[in-house]
Design a protein that fits this description.
Blueprint lengths: L3 H7 L6 H52 L3 E6 L6 E6 L22 E2 L5 E4 L3 E3 L5 E3 L1 E6 L6 E6 L5 E5 L5
Antiparallel strand pairs: 1-2, 1-5, 2-3, 4-7, 5-6, 7-8, 8-9
Length: 170
């Protein structure tokens, strides 16, 4: 009859060195394969977030035009930290200082930056009428800093703002 003490001596616990090396090699191989996919996913989500943020800003400009019963234009500025947007009552571009809208989320000069530092590479003049239609419609392109991912933000003449897949990222 085998006692408990003899059974423990015959089957020591733990893993052998070779088993540990094989498991570590498998983990390293799976990590090496999945890391580029994870990086691409993170970049795409970052660009998606910047595009959504830009859509929200354009909706805000449209809403200002409707509630104040005056046209509002969207002005753009490139900075090293990322691109910025501001709203201007009227249709003049660049925006005269007296016409800049300053409100929640804007800086002293009315500028609002994209939170994650993405770029707006296509910047047509977008102007919303007092009825909410886009008197000057167009397509803006949002691109992440590494230029690996981009999306288009399309403003239709009716004032509808939507996100679309970009034809090609420069």
């Amino acid at each position: 009859m085998v006692t408990r003490r003899q059974s423990l001596k015959a089957h020591p616990g733990g893993f052998s060195f070779i088993e540990l090396v094989v498991i570590i090699a498998l983990i390293a191989a799976v990590s090496a394969i999945s890391a580029p996919m994870l990086i691409s996913f993170v970049q795409a989500q970052r660009t998606q977030g910047a595009a959504r943020e830009l859509v929200a800003m354009l909706h805000q400009a449209r809403q200002l035009a409707i509630t104040r019963n005056t046209p509002f234009s969207v002005d753009y500025q490139a900075t090293p930290q990322g691109d910025q947007v501001r709203f201007c009552s009227g249709t003049a571009t660049p925006c005269p200082v007296a016409n800049v809208w300053a409100g929640p989320g804007t800086g002293a000069n009315g500028w609002m930056g994209l939170a994650n530092g993405d770029r707006i590479t296509l910047t047509p003049t977008i102007t919303f009428s007092a009825l909410g239609a886009a008197t000057a419609a167009g397509t803006l392109r949002v691109q992440n800093p590494s230029a690996m991912s981009c999306l288009d933000v399309v403003v239709s003449p009716a004032g509808r703002v939507r996100i679309a897949a970009a034809g090609s990222c420069p």
